Amino acid sequence: MDLYQLRYFLAVVETGSFSKAAERVFVTQPTLSAGIKKLEHALDQVLFLRGRKGIALTDAGRALLPRARTIIAECNAAKADMLPEAPRRRLRLGIGRSLPAERLAPLLRDYREAEPKDELVIRDGSEDDLAGWLAQGRIDAAIGTGPAPDGQGVALFRWRLMLATAADGPYAGRSAITLEDLDHVASIVRSHCDCLGEVTRELIRRGIRPRIVCRTDSDEKALRHVAAGLGVVLVPDLYRHPGVRLVALAEPSFGRTVSLRWHGRPTPVLESFRLFATSHDWTADGDGASARLGWAR
Length: 297
What we know:
Elements: H1 3-15, H2 18-24, H3 29-43, E1 48-51, E2 54-57, H4 59-82, E3 90-96, H5 101-114, E4 119-125, H6 127-136, E5 141-144, E6 153-166, E7 176-177, E8 186-190, H7 196-206, E9 211-216, H8 219-227, E10 233-236, E11 244-249, E12 255-262, H9 268-279
Parallel strand pairs: 3-4, 3-5, 7-11, 8-9
Antiparallel strand pairs: 1-2, 5-12, 6-10, 6-11, 6-12
Helix pairs in contact: 1-2, 1-3, 1-4, 2-3, 2-9
């Protein structure tokens, strides 16, 4: 068993994909797959179940996971203790205000564990704020729904609006709803919603008049109100909250692509972060099956 095999193993668990894991550890996918096979042969155990819906850890893989994390963490600590102190790299990162923190936190945590000597400085703002800060050089990069110029950005994932309703509400048992279902229905408006303008125009075009009971720029408050039965609200499919169920919007579809974008030539620290962001599993919930790890190289 070699250390690089454990790093490959942890990268696959974290990203939920052999191809994304290969990007993160800077090897080709065949090289990574060969390393995993060697590890499985050395342990005489199958570590991953591979299927059409993705990959999952076997019982042997779950047993290896905490030990692999400990081994890699100790190796990283020993390496850091032996190396001379390097200049601290700093990345000023703007985050779109409408992106839920629980989706971003695992990425930021993974990066800090992998690159503990790098300093991340986070600044929340609207999409207009992010664009202005980038142009003025006040941040190095931004994660949000604003357009990414050619060669100065990369798409990370796409979200779509869904209806958030109380778990025991009238729409909770539905598989999908239409905008017409919202006519005269008690509704909450997220005033910072990226799609607010186009949703409003479509409602007016169709003659649909939801009954507005609350306007807020706080997603936490909006979802708490929904859970309490005050009304329904349209939110990105990234959101989760106790007592709230998300129901698909059948038509029309509203959504945005979230990108990492920058201005000018990316710095080495930004390039490192870009590799993390593009290989991150954005679909996993919290600390679920894809278990974020400090596998750092």
